[in-house]
Amino acid sequence: MNRTIAIVHNAVTHPARPDEADVLVQVAAVTSALNGLGYYPVPVPCTLNLAALKQALETIRPSGVFNLVESLENRGSLIHVVPALLDALAVPYTGCPAPAVYATSHKVMAKERLHLAGLPTPAWINPFPVDMLWQGGMDLREDRHPQNSTAPQNQAIDRVWIIKSVWEHGSLGLEAEHLVTGTAKTVSRLLKTRAMGLGGACFAEQFIFGREFNLSLLATRSGVQVLPAAEILFPDTPDSRPAMVGFRAKWEQDSEEYHNTPRRFDFSPADTPLLTELNTLARRCWHLFHLAGYARVDFRVDSDGRPFILEVNTNPCLSPDAGFAAALDRAKIPYADAVHQMVTTQLCSE
Questions:
Q1: Which class for 260: exposed (0-12), middle (13-18), buried (19 or more C-beta within 10 A)?
Q2: What's the structural domain count of the chain?
């Protein structure tokens, strides 16, 4: 039996942002797990030189690929290219298939699909530059107060928005101080000025004040398993600052946000209906986008207890200190066992 597994990951150039360099931590963790399981992992960094990647795989002749590619040349819009190449080469790989990676990594495309499926996602303003005519985005001509509002009916609504990159992940550019307030029409004018700093394309999403959750999912031979829900807490966030997990909270270890955003898995009985709903929504996302292997769904929950799907992450961070590993630990699934499950369900059976 061929027990060689190529761990394909995006090449890291130096100096690198902490979110970019983290893939090397994931490579080390997966390599250690595979070694302990009796496999022969071979890390393979890749760039836009796809011919070189093809040659490397032909030389190694692995039983499959453990896919840790998060971008190419630091461009999140190319995250689907390697799994698409692996499909063309008929090389099996872990994680989600190329179409699912593409459809979820384009955040507006993902929101459009959620919207059309009747799944809750925050209102949004279509991206700049315009790439397609997305039906679910705010109609800038009709951003008015609802009929039951006491405000004048011809007065546009001021909302709080967060401007996001269309493609880049890792919470790039997301911080509480970057929230903007205004009507959809006025905020749409800001997108052009923000696009270059957010990977070249951005959109605005209505900010949901409230709680923040994420649910990790792991494929098994009998179906998808939703791991325990995690809530991010903001114990020392002042009332004057909206509570959210931004770039600093995820990656900058010397920041206040990094140390003041713990996660919890213990909830009161009053939260049971909400947790059940989050579980159902995560499963619906899994089936809607035809996910496979493993994934994570991020939520905000408003003050009325209504959940909203923020993102479907088809390549969640597998670092030992990240949320996916924490959810595994809560579910009493050893990290190495989860890696073994990923390999045996998608690359080779034993």
A1: middle
A2: 3
If asked whether residues 9 and 130 sit together in one domain, one would say no
Q: Could you give the dihedral angle defined by the CA atoms of residues 37, 42, 47 and 49, in that order, rounded to the nearest 10 degrees?
A: -130
Q: CA 167, CA 163: separation in Å to the nearest integer?
A: 12
Q: Structural domain of residue 217, as residue ranges?
A: 210-346
Q: Please report, for residues 70, 81, 142, 157, 260, the alpha-carbon distance to residue 77 in angstroms, rounded to integers and kept in the order given.
A: 9, 9, 31, 32, 31
pTM above the 0.85 mark?
A: yes
Kindly report the CATH number assigned to the domain that includes residue 16: 3.40.50.20
User: What are residue 184's phi and psi, to 5 degrees?
Assistant: -55, -40
d(CA 21, CA 67): 16
3-class DSSP state for residue 152?
coil
Task: Report the pLDDT averaged over residues 71-96.
Answer: 94
Q: For the sheet containing 202-206, what is the strand order?
A: 124-128, 202-206, 159-165, 180-182
Identity of the residue numbered 322 = A
Count of C-beta atoms within a 10 Å radius of residue 76: 20
Is the backbone of residue 210 left (phi > 0), alpha (psi -120 to 50) or beta?
left
pLDDT tens digits, one per residue of 296-345: 999 999 999 999 999 999 999 999 999 999 999 999 999 999 999 999 99
Sign of the torsion angle spanned by Cα atoms 265, 227, 103, 88:
positive
